[in-house]
């Protein structure tokens, strides 16, 4: 039943109407999530869509072709050349998707000799911070399977945050957040580089609470959080998670250093993800409500 639908959508990729091509690409994207094996015959069609006039279609074609390569690597030629060509696209989001997919298939084909670290290094120097952050994310993943390949570009990654720079798009989607989380992963992969990475992360406690929290997440990944700050945060969390709401908890939270507040919020957020018992939910929810009136906490908890 699915094969005929794929064939029909395949034909629609060549339709003269942009919206038809776009809807076909969207449908193919959804089907490919669960049936990547059915898409091997249309891999060449997807390669052709990578130069479509519609930016959104090009992005989705990159994603679907990457998923086919990951799901059935033995069935198609690795699309290294296709993704590398997309790195020259005029649209940053397309370049961003291309470098992410290039890193992904490099992991899928661990013995491939087509991997060029120069592609990633060039993206770290891209005019778009979206592309820079995507390259950093891809490298952090790639380092787990190709540590010696990625090691030479660690300096380039650290340079992105040294000295501090103005980033486009502050807040939860800000590029600096992705770079910091990637640095945390790199600190785990390369323990000898951890001190330098920690030094950079510890300087990133600016006015944006999201930035502070994600820097803390990265430091936690490397197990490099200041012990005194951790102790202070544990005390505040204990008060916040007590059965009765505590004025002292709020006062201590407000008076705490940014690094301590970031640790408190990080701990509460992790509690939400780790909760096994329904009985624990009201307690955590109450803790959220207790500090939700504090501006920088509200950004994390709303």
Automatic annotation (TrEMBL):
InterPro entries: ARM-like, ARM-type_fold, Clathrin/coatomer_adapt-like_N. One of its GO terms (molecular function) is oxidoreductase activity. One of its GO terms (cellular component) is membrane coat. It comes from the Archaea. SUPFAM superfamilies: ARM repeat. One of its GO terms (biological process) is intracellular protein transport. Residues 50-246 form the Clathrin/coatomer adaptor adaptin-like N-terminal domain. PANTHER family: DEOXYHYPUSINE HYDROXYLASE, PBS LYASE HEAT-LIKE PROTEIN. This is Clathrin/coatomer adaptor adaptin-like N-terminal domain-containing protein. It comes from Natrinema altunense (strain JCM 12890 / CGMCC 1.3731 / AJ2).
């Amino acid at each position: 039943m699915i094969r005929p639908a794929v064939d029909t959508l395949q034909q629609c990729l060549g339709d003269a109407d942009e919206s038809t091509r776009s809807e076909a690409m969207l449908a193919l994207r959804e089907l490919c999530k669960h049936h990547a094996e059915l898409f091997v015959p249309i891999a060449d069609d997807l390669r052709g869509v990578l130069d479509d006039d519609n930016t959104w279609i090009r992005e989705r074609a990159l994603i679907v072709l990457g998923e086919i390569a990951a799901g059935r690597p033995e069935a198609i030629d690795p699309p290294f050349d296709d993704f590398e060509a997309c790195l020259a696209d005029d649209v940053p989001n397309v370049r961003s998707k291309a470098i992410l997919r290039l890193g992904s298939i490099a992991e899928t084909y661990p013995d491939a000799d087509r991997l060029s670290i120069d592609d990633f290094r060039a993206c770290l120097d891209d005019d778009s911070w979206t592309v820079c952050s995507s390259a950093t994310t891809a490298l952090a993943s790639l380092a787990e399977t190709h540590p010696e390949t990625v090691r030479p570009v660690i300096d380039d990654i650290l340079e992105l945050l040294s000295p501090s720079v103005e980033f486009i798009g502050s807040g939860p989607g800000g590029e600096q957040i992705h770079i910091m989380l990637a640095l945390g992963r790199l600190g785990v992969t390369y323990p000898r580089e951890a001190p330098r990475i920690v030094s950079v992360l510890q300087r990133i406690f600016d006015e944006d609470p999201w930035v502070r929290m994600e820097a803390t997440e990265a430091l936690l990944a490397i197990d490099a959080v200041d012990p005194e700050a951790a102790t202070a945060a544990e005390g505040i969390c204990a008060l916040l998670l007590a059965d009765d709401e505590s004025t002292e908890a709020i006062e201590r939270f407000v008076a705490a250093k940014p690094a301590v507040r970031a640790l408190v919020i990080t701990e509460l957020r992790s509690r939400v993800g780790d909760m096994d018992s329904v009985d624990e939910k009201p307690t955590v929810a109450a803790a959220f409500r207790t500090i939700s009136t504090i501006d920088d906490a509200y950004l994390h908890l709303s």
